[in-house]
Amino acid sequence: MKKGILVSLTMALILSAVPMQTQALRLEKIKYGDFSSWVTRKVNESKVIGGKQKVLYEIGPKQTIVGNKAYHNLGGSPWATSNVYAKVSGIVKGSCAVNPAVINGNTVCKMQTIMEHVKVLGVINMDVMVAGSIFLGHVYEPITSTKGPYAKMEMGIPYTKRPKALVFDFKVDMPNTNTRVKSSGFGAKKTLSGRDNAEVYIILQKRWEDAKGNIYAARVGTGRERYSRSIPWTKGHQIKIQYGDITKTPGYKSYMGLLNGSHSYYARNSKGKLVPVKEVEWADANETPTHMLVMASSGCGEAYIGTEGIALYIDNICLGF
Fold it and tell me: Domain range spanning residue 59?
């Protein structure tokens, strides 16, 4: 009973059912998914790297936060971003690859791939490749290292419905290059062959926890797209959600597969510890999910690998039924 109440409260908080019609679909907006409201953060970077005030943005109720404070989702916002306040080796740095932008007079979310530079003569000389990303979940600040990036964020929210599609407006700016750069801040930068892609996905999972606090999941629903070219502003784009085992279906790509091993995202277990969510099987096509993951990103590779200049703009993220 308590679990049912929790899910109901979470649904009421995160989803505001606003009936609209897009190709015969009834749409439910995800809270703050119209990106018209932003939290502005002003982080004071360490004097040894210039002492500038870095402006970071979060998706939530309009307000300004001044100072080096760990951010927690405000106003019931389910959204987290790759924008972070980091404190590495005692040095404070802010990173901002997600910000509001205006298209056709409307405020949207812009994610871009950038290279963050941290240089302190004789102490630190780091270049870190950052892809702009937004997702349903939380980031735990301050970030203290570039190791294990997924272990610093919690992916997914409780969710028990079975939508037909993820619906949104979007645009992609893609540089005409077929190389990527790997730069984590440690070791030399490496140039890699291959074109990076922007991507958007929705994943529905049925999760459970064992007596030791390990979290496992069966994949209930999948909708995932990658974009390798520039795309003009497009309204009402739909990513169809396929249910059950999709490995034999037309259009299946390897990146749509189960998330486990180094690809596992993290969640907080009943003991309060962040642990990897190990997707171990495909659920039956008629299964009901317990959690939903939605992510949009200007990159699709491993952490700290990307192509500067890729930009993904997105607006009006909804669930279609």
Answer: 2-320
